[in-house]
Amino acid sequence: MSDSEEDSQDRQLKIVVLGDGACGKTSLATRFAQEAFGKQYKQTIGLDFFLKRISLPGNLNVTLQVWDIGGQTIGGKMLDKYVYGAHVSQIIMSHLDSQ
C-alpha cells in the first residue's frame, strides 16, 4: 500500500430531501447523484436512496447518502427514523403550488 493510500480518509454524510409530493425532490436527487433526469413522473413510495462518491483535496473521500423521502411520508410514523442522523436536510418546494 502506498503512502497516499494510507493517508486517505473516508467519510460518509447523510443528506435527506424533504417536501410535498410532486415538487421535484426525486428529479433533483437523481440529477445530483446520477447526473440524469427521469423522463416521466414516478411517485416515491416511502423513500429512495442514492449514493454519490466525491474526492476532495487532502485525500478525503466522501460518500454522500441521499435519502429522497416521499411527500406522502411527511407527517408519517417513519419520518423521524428517516431523518435521524442526517448531516444535511434539504426542503424542496415548488413555486407552482400556492398553498
Automatic annotation (TrEMBL):
<keyword id="KW-0967">Endosome</keyword>
<keyword id="KW-0342">GTP-binding</keyword>
<dbReference type="GO" id="GO:0010008">
    <property type="term" value="C:endosome membrane"/>
</dbReference>
<protein>
    <submittedName>
        <fullName>RAB28, member RAS onco family</fullName>
    </submittedName>
</protein>
<dbReference type="GO" id="GO:0090385">
    <property type="term" value="P:phagosome-lysosome fusion"/>
</dbReference>
<dbReference type="GO" id="GO:0015031">
    <property type="term" value="P:protein transport"/>
</dbReference>
<keyword id="KW-0472">Membrane</keyword>
<dbReference type="GO" id="GO:0008333">
    <property type="term" value="P:endosome to lysosome transport"/>
</dbReference>
<dbReference type="GO" id="GO:0005764">
    <property type="term" value="C:lysosome"/>
</dbReference>
<keyword id="KW-0488">Methylation</keyword>
<dbReference type="GO" id="GO:0005770">
    <property type="term" value="C:late endosome"/>
</dbReference>
<keyword id="KW-0653">Protein transport</keyword>
<dbReference type="InterPro" id="IPR027417">
    <property type="entry name" value="P-loop_NTPase"/>
</dbReference>
<comment type="similarity">
    <text>Belongs to the small GTPase superfamily. Rab family.</text>
</comment>
<keyword id="KW-0449">Lipoprotein</keyword>
<dbReference type="GO" id="GO:0005525">
    <property type="term" value="F:GTP binding"/>
</dbReference>
<dbReference type="Pfam" id="PF08477">
    <property type="entry name" value="Roc"/>
</dbReference>
<keyword id="KW-0547">Nucleotide-binding</keyword>
<dbReference type="GO" id="GO:0045335">
    <property type="term" value="C:phagocytic vesicle"/>
</dbReference>
<keyword id="KW-0813">Transport</keyword>
<keyword id="KW-0636">Prenylation</keyword>
